[in-house]
């Protein structure tokens, strides 16, 4: 229950902060920007699946904010890198991504969707099923879209399945 309230508060804060900016995108849609923002998230998932830490880090802004479902926010690439290193040293990833919504203006974008797939432990134990929903905020930087904020949680009714 606490996590649900925190998620609602977080999404409310995002809409207050980005709403006016992204409302302009609705009046004048940047469909190319929306597609490019979604492709940036696809590149992140592909880098995750290849377990390429350097490619993964290129998908994020230096000041990225991660809001995982299982703890406090992590701030900056230096904070999230050890989580990836632990993930990649423990699992083979086979993830997919589906998009429900994307909006963009010249500098900011958000993408909302779902990730699914499996995490297969390198020790040969049973795989874990991934069935998450996410919101990614992106910022146009250095000629491309990079994830600046990432929030995710298991989808309602999704349990960790073997």
- What is the number of helices? 4
Rg estimate, integer Å? 16 Å
Contiguous low-pLDDT stretches (5 residues minimum) are 1-17, 20-27
Say how many strands there are: 6
Biggest sheet: strand arrangement: 2-1-6-5-4-3
CATH class: Alpha Beta
Helix content: 40-55%
* Mean of pLDDT: 86
Report the order of strands and helices. HHHEEHEEEE
Annotation keywords:
39% strand, globular, Nuclear Transport Factor 2, Chain: A, 162 residues, 4 helices, six-stranded mixed beta sheet, alpha+beta
Short description:
The chain has 162 residues and is an alpha+beta fold. It has a single domain (2-154), classed as Nuclear Transport Factor 2, Chain: A (Roll), CATH 3.10.450.50. The protein is built from four helices and six strands, in the order αααββαββββ.
What do these coordinates show?
- The chain has 162 residues and is an alpha+beta fold.
- The chain has a single domain, classed as Roll (Nuclear Transport Factor 2, Chain: A), CATH 3.10.450.50.
- Strands 2-1-6-5-4-3 form a 6-stranded mixed beta sheet.
- A hairpin with a 6-residue loop joins strand 1 and strand 2.
- The longest helix has 26 residues.
- The relative contact order is 0.18.
Write the topology of this structure:
Layout: H1 2-27, H2 31-50, H3 53-58, E1 60-67, E2 74-75, H4 77-90, E3 91-104, E4 108-121, E5 128-141, E6 144-154
Parallel strand pairs: 1-6
Antiparallel strand pairs: 1-2, 3-4, 4-5, 5-6
């Amino acid at each position: 229950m606490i996590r649900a309230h925190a998620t609602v508060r977080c999404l409310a804060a995002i809409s207050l902060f980005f709403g006016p900016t992204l409302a302009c995108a609705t009046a004048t849609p940047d469909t190319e920007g929306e597609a490019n923002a979604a492709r940036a998230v696809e590149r992140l998932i592909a880098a995750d699946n290849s377990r390429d830490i350097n490619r993964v880090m290129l998908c994020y802004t230096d000041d990225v904010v991660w809001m995982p479902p299982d703890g406090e926010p992590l701030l900056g690439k230096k904070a999230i890198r050890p989580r990836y290193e632990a993930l990649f040293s423990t699992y083979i990833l086979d993830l997919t991504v589906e998009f429900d919504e994307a909006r963009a203006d010249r500098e900011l974008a958000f993408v909302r969707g779902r990730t699914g797939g499996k995490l297969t432990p390198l020790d040969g134990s049973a795989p874990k099923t991934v069935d998450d929903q996410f919101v990614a905020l992106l910022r146009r930087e250095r000629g491309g879209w990079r994830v600046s904020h990432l929030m995710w949680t298991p989808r309602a009714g999704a349990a960790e399945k073997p």
